[in-house]
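lol ok so funny story. i was supposed to be doing the assay writeup but got distracted and ended up predicting the structure for this chain instead. priorities right. anyway since i did it might as well share w the group, maybe its usefull for someone
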Amino acid sequence: MMPHAHPQPRRCLPRRAPATVAAAAALIMGAALTACSSTSTAATGVAPPSVAADGTVRLTGAGSTFDAPFFDLAFPTYEQQHPGVAISYAAVGSSAGITAFTAGQADFGASDVPASPTDLASARGGAAVQVPVDLGAVVVAYNLPLPGGPSRLRLTGPVIARIFLGQITYWNDPAITALNPHVDIPRWPITVVHRSDGSGTTYIFSNYLSAVSPAWATQVGTGRSLHWPTGYGADGNPGVAAAISRISFAIGYIERSYAKGPALAYAAIANQAGNYTIPTTQAIAADAAARPAITAASFSIVNEPGPASYPICGYSWVIVSVRQPSQATGQTLASLLSWLTGAGQAYAATLGYVPLPPAIQQLATTTLQQLTGPDGTPLTS
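and the output, tada:
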């Protein structure tokens, strides 16, 4: 059976966000300044405080598409509960979000991997801290019209690495069929879909592959942006999910909440114990529980031990300036993040994320206690 001919996947992002960092920064800056009064912040170099004439405090953020489903639900809820607060978020990918934040174009950035000291060295707002905001999983999704109807495939980390290295090119390769004796897989060509933008989801996925495949670690490695050996690129988790849905015989990686299309299924993946697991709430929590203490400098939780652990998990982070340029916006931002990492976790749970474990919620609280207003006054108690 011959594959369908398909062009390069059309790139798409939620909210029609731009694919380039420069365009993202322009969009964010424009949104921040529209209908807002401003005061000069030449001393800090960050965007002017966003306080509208009616007193509404406007916060702008940019970054992770991994976080976007959670933010899309949580931020409007917070606005309803707190009249006078307006939050805009551009889901442009982790790397673009870090760049927008460090350029002073956003009040906060969001990334599925903490920004490095090098990333933050030139931040126009000065010293920054990173706050864990959600816990989720990356799935290996595929589009296979299998004979007899849908069936969940089993995959191992080394086999996934070989697929994304371009070494396994057909679905009925013996390495795949040996793991799935219960499935009749015809000789279909594999089309790999990966992220084309700088992505924290890519970091988590490649971090996992580096942990389980020496060949991947040597040839490709771990990062937000990679030199991919094979495949098509798409922007954002939505773009990758759309491409997998559209391209027969495709495979790619996406945050779990994006695997909802009727054509998408995702694999059960062997963990350290050799058990095939899917990213249930319990399996993600089990992986995180194996490493209860993390920091922004030591954060990886992929491939943790345990019989029930799902092996491709990670925390996502929000980046904020320690010294806020405005008391009003700083207080509002600190209050938002305190709620997001506390009561707001209930909204994450409805979308397939896992509520932050108590120790990580405490890490978030302790981190937010470092925030101050422009005169050094703490913003949280």
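The mean pLDDT is 88. The chain has two domains: 14-133+316-368, 137-313.
back to the writeup now i swear
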